[in-house]
Amino acid sequence: MIVADKKPIQEIIEEIKPYERILILGCNECVTVCEAGGKKEVGILASALRMYFLNQGRNVKIDEETLERQCDHEYLEEIRDVIDQYDAVVSLACGVGVQFMAETYFSTPVFPGVNTCFMGVTEDRGLWTERCQGCGQCILSRTAGICPVSRCAKRVLNGPCGGSSNGKCEINKELACAWQLIIERLKALGRLDEYEELSPIKDWSTDRAGGPRKVVREDVQP
Amino acid sequence: MTYPTYIKIIRVPCTGKIDILHILRSFEKGADGVYAVGCMEGDCHYTSGNFRARKRVEQARKILETVGVGSDRVEMFNMASSEGPRFAEVAVEMVEKIKKLGPNPIKLKKKQAA
To answer: pLDDT tens, A162-182?
Structure first.
């Protein structure tokens, strides 16, 4: 899932200060799971903002809504009938949702309510870690299901590098060396001989190096 | 053994049920203070309900400080269910504290706006 973190309320207040009618718009998908932008977080932020503006002696309308997703047309359309009632929207979706919201409702200012961080997993309650950088050319079959692109600080494809020490990365002693993990898993799978095979030069044009990307699937297009 | 009549008790199965939203909405609706009374730490029937409550109380305090209501209006106390006198003592303590802080500023602003 896409992992996001809450933005400080003060930062959001600074952005929406000039407006009188504000919609706090949550998303029921990834940001709900990582407890940053779901229905509950919408409720907390809206309540806090209502109190803030009341305390400032201002009568600002703060409404709450949470859509199934903000990255699909059909769900964003659900607010078309009410969007004109608001001067601004604070979207608690990831950066994708915020942008799609802005594209869909061109004349309504949209502000992000979370900081979008990465694609990752819930390792534990309140602990999310990165697993994928969407490089566009998945190599997990060769690396025992552990991604050196997202989990190695240097994105080394034939590792480990000289900074690996006691299974940890030199940038942080608590960070596991991805290549140590790869070797351990290859060993456990009885495939350690594959470690000897050199990875070819990776085509990074499918990563961000090639600019914004798109996937076109004619087979599923209408 | 009496406690002040200002206090409205909201019963929950465990303090672990208390959400930040319950605390925030109480202030939105005009409460002058909110305190959670949980079991003694280490004695939670559900293992960690009172620890969860304490974390949420802390988060609510931070939010209330940011929005200008003030963090001092929210507290958490731990006591055993057999400690009736302690319950009354804490109620008195909290009421005195809130009286010193004065009414919830949101409530005052709402009245002014009306």
So the answer is: 999 999 999 999 999 999 999
ipTM: 0.94
**What domains lie within chain A, and their CATH numbers?**
2-118 (3.40.50.2300), 135-210 (no CATH)
Please check whether residue B69 touches A, CB under 8 A: yes
- Which residue among A40, A49, A55 places its CB closest to the CB of B106? A55
pLDDT digits 0-9 by tens, A141-167? 999 999 999 999 999 999 899 999 999
* CA–CA gap between residue A89 and residue A110 (Å, rounded): 5
**CA of B83, closest CA in chain A: separation in Å?**
33
Cα-Cα-Cα-Cα torsion B50, B52, B54, B55, nearest 10 degrees, comes to 170
Domain annotation covers residue B67: yes
Among the partner residues B63, B66, B110, nearest to A54 by beta-carbon distance: B110
The 8-class DSSP code of residue A44 comes to H
